[in-house]
Amino acid sequence: MTFQVIFLEALKLTFCQHEDVGAFCGFCKRLRSFKPEKSQYTLNLDTVIVHGNVLSAEVTTVDTTEEKRTTLWHYALKLSALKDATFRIELDEADPLYPRYRSQLALNGEPKPDGLKLISNENGKLTLSNIQGHKVIITAEPLKFEFVNLAGDTVVVINDNHQLLIEPLREEEGTWGENFKSHHDSKKRGNEAVSMDFSFPEADQVYGIPEHTDKLALRTTTSGDPYRLYNLDVFEYELDSRMALYGAVPVMYAHGAKHSAGIFWHNSAETWVDVINYADSTVVSSLVNLVTGGQKKRVDARFMSEANVIDVFVFLGDKPNDVLRQYTAITGTAPLPPKFSLAYHQCRWNYVDEADVRSVNEGFDTHDLPADVLWLDIEYTNGKKYFTWDPVKFPTPHDMVANLTAKGRKMVIIIDPHIKREAGYFVHEDCTDKGYYVKDKDGKDYEGWCWPGSSSYIDFLDPVSSQYYSDRYLYENFPGTSKDVHFWNDMNEPSVFNGPEITMPKDCQHYKPPQDGHEGVSSYWEHRHIHNEYGLFVIRASHSGILKRDEGKYRPFILTRAVFAGTQRYAAVWTGDNVAEWGFLAVSVPMCLSLAAAGVSFCGSDVGGFFKYPEAELMTRWYQAAAYQAFMRAHSHIETKRREPWLYDASTLALLRDALRKRYALLDFWYTLFYEHTLDGLPVTRALYQEYPNEEETFTIDDQYLIGDKLLVRPVVEPGVTSVKVYLPGAANNVLWYDVDSYVALPARGYFTQDVTIAKIPVYQRGGSIVPRKERVRRSSALMADDPYTLVVALDTDNKAHGTLYIDDGETYEYLNNKHIYARIDYEPSGITYSFIDDKAHYPTRSWVERIVIAGIKTPPKTAKLIQGDKQTALQMTLHKGNDVLVVRKPGAKMAQEWRITFSY
User: What Pfam families does the record tag this protein with (predicted)?
Assistant: First the structure.
């Protein structure tokens, strides 16, 4: 029995169990019934041309049901070799009846080409190689692609299970439409779905395709629904589910102890993904053992999209971090965010008026709590008309914002893409008069229902419409805003309360550039083609407008709910409308880890839960966990009980204050990691397997994670516990992990039980690392800019440690003009060196080093001396013998200059 048969038989076991998903009964069910014993797709070897980094050729489908083989359809194949061990396959109809949509915004520019060489053309197989020596073997009949890494291992196989399918566009009489409850989808273009299967030999697990509330390691789908990628506004979403949420990033990574690989399915239409892990207990083990001999490992996946072309990138790794970097090289890294955005955000739907905002602002100072941002939800507007202020509740927005900025704080306000259909509202009048709205299936302005009531939606695919929207952010068009007012794009899936599945009908019409001879359905794109990309169009337009208002001087901050590939280039993301329950706290970890692996490191969840009310223990644990997540914002529903930290009892308030202080102490560490992300593309928060790819125990761990490669965090996400299981990786390399509170060193030993109290969650610093901290926590991060650093040095078994530090002004783009500091800090027994990695860059910071904590020191030095410029200073040291900690007190080293400390013994 072959793998193909197991794959197909397993799929027969799967059927959609979600009664509300009418779309499944269309293209997904149709594609699943496509189960040929042999692929109908054949490469015409006589048409192969290799030029530069591209192979082009003709692919045909053949009808083998007749005695005489008949060619049915012709397709154009393009295989490209790209830099950094990446390949791209594009497959489209050679002469389609209508053009097919190609996603526009996911890629960060044109991918960089590599060389491609044809090595052999023998026995119906082509063997090609890129410059580095990665190979692609293409079997002509039936068509199959095998990708081979430098070690000679086949890491990705395409169409091994014969699930390649491109439904050709046809001109036929008949009704293509489909019904979903009371909604009718006209489907004027007919069926145009695509499908492709991918096999990952030697893989233990696959990851990615966020956003779901499932485990980090994707599970076999034969016993339930496939994973669905379709951006939706999901009210009180379910846990442990593969169903669609607000985000849809079609990237998948495969990993085993031998190698890693990945694929990016570049498609913005609704997509379903099946997974079969042959090591899973849900797959019939006897069949697997029959095929594999009980030894080989493999994971299969199948991507099915409702429309568009086949366009897939293949990443050949070799390690997890290689694959993650290869993906961000294609879709882009997150830009360096303004520093305040990494601090604490306080939000609610809604702070009711300016007096309420002033009271909350003062409350943080009264109770000695740091905060950087206060947020306003939809009620600040004049009747839910965006780019306006309620004249009664928010009559003086400039003064309100000035009260915040006086304390170093900012404001974020919400702007959603639905526009209220009200006569006299300038945005609606302009969009109506100038034709800027998305059209319905009959070509009229589409009307849906959202927060304002009757609403229409700007067609961001039209460059003119998009520019109009961007210009609404200009100061002259939005009085009351300033450089300290930033934005939140919510409801941008788009959310339509009376639409199918609370979103826009698929047969709505979007702008398409005019082309000669294209009429009717060929003259516009349908919403089905661009749906998962719509939110990306929204935040791109917002980003452009916010940049323009200050002539590109200041870095924007935007929060988005809808997510697609490339979102990270414009916005941070949160996990949507969660609930004040323990399960939602727990799932925030794998959800953000999955998004980070898909390029979106700037992720968090609503602290405390959006719906319901968190009791003291849950609220405490949520603050403690969120203090170690990239985006930290408390937010709650308008009908929930108020929950600012000081509204809890005194002991809980003290615990929340401690969590916030821990967050602020590490802001420069977070900031450095985000800067390094712009350089290397690696996630800021990482699953353990990414840094310890040979430890099989880490492959499915998703209740703890790493911040960079230096801190390990295990949030407490269960009620009433006095201990938790923690896994400390790195035993094979004798890695040490130091408790960040006690500096007690623990050797890597796999799982162990860690005692916890309500005041503590397990956090460890890796031996061999240096983490910069600022212990003088003030009311906002802006007021800490010139405060001194504490450097925490955690020694490895060789008595060495290394770290980095990034410093700039925190808000402008001047860092791109070499106005920053990017420094390396090295510890050896002979001393500590602070040196600039980028010696052409400088920044006049007034910060300095007030303390150096060296943990794990066995033989302390007798004397220490600071050398900076031509000045030498003797330093004082204190040894804490109980935990082998040496403290160098007030060295006074200035961070604007290189320095070194020498030890003598």
Answer: Gal_mutarotas_2 (PF13802), Glyco_hydro_31_2nd (PF01055), Glyco_hydro_31_3rd (PF21365)
